[in-house]
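Hello Y.,

Per our agreement to keep a running log of every chain we model this quarter, I'm adding this entry. I've kept the format consistent with earlier entries: sequence first, then predicted structure.
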Amino acid sequence: MILPSALNDVDNNLVTLFQHGDKEVYTRLYNKYAPAVLGVLSRMVGDKALAEECTNDAFCLIWSKRKDYDPAKERLFTWMIKIAKHCASCLPPEKRNQMADEIREEIDLVYAMDIKSYLQEMQKEQGDNFASGVDVTIREAIHLIYFESHSFAGAAEKIGISVDALREKMIQTIKQIKGSLLA
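Predicted structure for the entry above:
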């Protein structure tokens, strides 16, 4: 039989006090977990200011739902992350679109052109052969972002990579597509 360690007893006591509304314990938990939550949300939404806003919203929701937490079902951090991810997924479309627009503008500046119009024109010209030499997941991201108007964050989540990685791969891929057309 494994006996719980003293650390587990302390953590369990903190959770119990937190669930009963101890604001000092809540502050301690916030200080312990907020940096990690912010890191997850920063990767998820791709914008630090927006991630900070989501983190604050998440911790307000964590406080209000503290009695719903069941330590027998999952760890406290896992529960907090679920709430934080939900907060990020509920961002208003204009905030998600603003972030996507900023990344699109960054890519447009790299190539000094409107990439969305360029890709749509190439797709019309090439039909099913459009971007045939491109990695399937990035081709899917191009379709989601430039043809279905999804955000970069939404496309990144759907294909399972970070927004930063998607941005980098998108720049390389667009360079590849432009290069193949010039050859």
